[in-house]
Amino acid sequence: LYNRIAWTEGRATQGCDPSADRGRSGRRLPSRPPFNLAYPHEIARRPYSSVSSHQEITVLTGTFDLAAIRSAGGNAGMKSQSYDGVEVLASQTSNWDQIALIGTNTLVFGASATLHAALDRWTANPAQSATNSIIQQATAFTSGWDLFAIGSGNSAVKALLGAKSVAQYLANKAPLLGTQLAASTGFTFRARVTSSFRLELNITEPNAGTASSAAATISGIPGQIKAKGTGVADLLTAVSAYTTVTAVGPVVELVLDPTVYTLTTVVTPAHAGTLSPATTGAIFAANSTVTLSASPGSCYGSPSWSANAPGGVVIMTAPQRVTATFSNVSAASAACTVSAVPGALRLNKSNGQYQQVLTFTNTGSAVTNATVILDNLTAGVSLISADGSASCAPTGGPYRNISSIPSGTSSVTLTFTATNPSLAIQYSPRVVAGSGSR
Q1: What DSSP letter does each residue of 316-340 carry, written as one string?
Q2: Mean pLDDT in residue range 423-430
Q3: pLDDT tens-digit profile of 252-296?
Q4: Are 363 and 343 spatial neighbours (Cβ–Cβ below 8 Å)?
Q5: Residue 61, φ and ψ in degrees, nearest 5
Q6: What residues have CB less than 8 Å from 262, skipping those under 6 apart?
Q7: Is the CB of residue 202 less than 8 Å from the CB of residue 218?
Q8: CB-based contacts of 328: which residues, under 8 Å, 6+ apart?
Q9: How many separate helices (H) and strands (E) can be counted in the chain?
Q10: Treating both helix axes as pointing N-terminal to C-terminal, what angle do 164-172 and 175-182 enclose, rounded to 10 degrees?
């Protein structure tokens, strides 16, 4: 299997033609043996092990928002360049900080020369064997996983790419762990959260002794994690109980595989209110209890809950989908019996105001506690002596309250002002009635 791994980034392996160890620029790369793995049988047993090399490169596969990455890179002073037809974000202050945007599913981090050499081989034959360059290794092992990372030559600390909070934690709270991780020569990481939750991290240490020491240090971390939020306490308990850390030769193997289920919340009608937590797939520990709270929107009352969440409380015995149905408390439409037709506009030249008779035709019994709402009133036109503006959809129209609209024909006179005499005064009258919100 050693000889099947034709490339680690930046140098040829055993059995490869040293003359092939060049980027397209023609620069010769170092050709010292790349391997720092003492147990070749472990490579065969664990196909996701990283291949160590003194050349530094990290590959991430998953689903990435390239526009957001470009924006963040620009804010950090990175400039967009092109190499072999691939967009590369390059730091203007550090030769190591370069990111190749191979696509929405693959990012490559590394130093300029090493990154370019990797891209040379990838663009020459993107479909080559998964045991070839590190980009192919990463992209070949991602099926069914949401994120996969493989690092060659990077310590697990350096691969964090300058995450200040992590660096400060290691320096101030866990210096021993920081030292142990800084000595590592490669790593792989993969995570799945969309179907069943699982995290796997393999860290290649210099030897079995350092791996054993690092494993012992890492084992105590899950029980020390503290955080707040809905369901977090139960989730942290599950994390602590279902995390295993073992040393296998020079490799630290960390597996987090708790039993968790996803929660999806739905509001109906759409935009009728909000839920907390509002989620489309957040994970919670098995058998944990999640209490949902509801905030009705304008013109909606308290919701009814789906049968699996009485009172908004759901127990995560399986993946759950909770629906909150908000009741509409707006005033009832009277359109089925009452119609309203605007008459001609008359200008009062003495004050510049316009008057209009709005005629109602009621084919039913008298309608009490009525309101006529002027939807989509022309911008720049105001209704004088309006009793308010509609807060229930459609919103914003001024309205006039009418104590009663009798059966048959009746009318009300409306008065308007306009900021510009040339404006056409137009609107759609809508009649509602009852005690609900307007």
Answers
A1: -SS-EEEEEEEEE-BPEE-TTTEEE
A2: 91
A3: 888 888 788 889 999 999 888 999 988 887 878 888 899 999 999
A4: no
A5: -125, 145
A6: 281, 282, 283, 284, 319, 320
A7: no
A8: 269, 272, 299, 300, 301
A9: 8, 29
A10: 120
